[in-house]
Amino acid sequence: MSKHRDTMQALAKARPTRLEPDGPLPDPAALTAYPRAVARMARAPRPGRRLALVGGGVAVVAAVATVLSLRTGVPAPNATASSSVSATTAPTVVPTTASGLLLVAAERYDAEPVRDGRYWVVRFQHGEQAKPTIVDEQWLALRDGDPSVAYFKVGSRDWRARPMEGHSAANNFLLAGQTRPPAELAALPSDPDRLKARLLSWYSDEVSNEGRDQYLFYCGVAITLNLPVPAPVRAAAYRMLAELPGITALGRVTDALGRDGMAVGYSRRGDSGNVSQQRLIVDPATGYALAQESWTKGERGRYTAVLKSQWSDESLPDAADLK
Q: 217: buried, middle or exposed (CB in 10 Å: 19+, 13-18, 0-12)?
């Protein structure tokens, strides 16, 4: 069995079967795993975004491939500033095609400065129909020797901290089915054609059995949604997605948190015959992604909404200090 399949099997075992508000708090490493659609792509339950080694077992922590450098419509924060993701007023000219929206998003990132820091800090809200919502904030080390910690809360409970044992800068992030150190992510091409070629050089049946286009879609969403890459690389991922066959424009939508945006969708027919759709919701005024959602039969299923995403040089906070 390959190392990648071992990882995916460990993730499957780590995922809770239910997340009831009165039940035990779930493992934060399992909360933020890839969506099921990505799991089928990887021939096992969900390829994730970050790889967490919890209690000696390997589990994928928060992607869907895979969070992105998102910020609000206000000027981007510095390396230590706090940042939240919210929708802003839409531009005067509203894109009407999927490629148009993605190209607008790419142009917004062209003006973003290149940043870095000691930690990649992301906060998500995860939900799935009637199950309780889960919020997690991850401080993921970007430098060797620094610890990584996940903070999480279920429903109205207080924040809890859980060190990510075995986590390091070398294995914090997953792209194309393999861990990628920060230096490798930072060196991804800023040209969309070269980025596509790099991603396809990692493509194999060990990573995906759904075809190259779907593989590229999930890789592109991972880069735009949740990985610590420079702004030009994120812009390249948007441009790559704009050229990908099968992506459709869904127009104006409201995400699970009530934020307005515009969405593109990628659909596939599952083994059961049902058509599922993965949606990437973008704020067209800023280019920042707001959420990824899974829809089936016209209903929202699992979703991941980005609440904040940034680099930070600060020390790890106490759980009680999180707001």
A: buried
For 165, residues 6+ apart whose C-beta sits below 8 A from its C-beta are: 53, 54, 55, 56
CA 216, CA 103: separation in Å to the nearest integer? 17
Q: What is the C-alpha separation between 5 and 63, in angstroms, rounded?
A: 17
What's the chain's average pLDDT? 74
Please write down the long-range contacts of 184-190, taking CB distance under 8 Å and 24 or more positions apart. 185/227, 185/228, 185/229, 185/233, 186/116, 186/228, 186/229, 186/230, 186/233, 188/223, 188/229, 188/233, 188/236, 189/233, 189/236, 190/230, 190/232, 190/233, 190/235, 190/236
The model's pLDDT over 244-303, given as tens digits with 9 standing for 90+, comes to 998 998 999 999 999 999 999 998 877 677 788 999 999 888 888 999 999 998 899 999
User: In angstroms, how far is the first alpha carbon of the chain from the final one?
Assistant: 43
Per-residue pLDDT of 61-102, as tens digits, reads: 333 333 333 332 323 332 333 345 655 544 446 677 888 888
Nearest to 250 by CA among 264, 266, 234, 239: 264
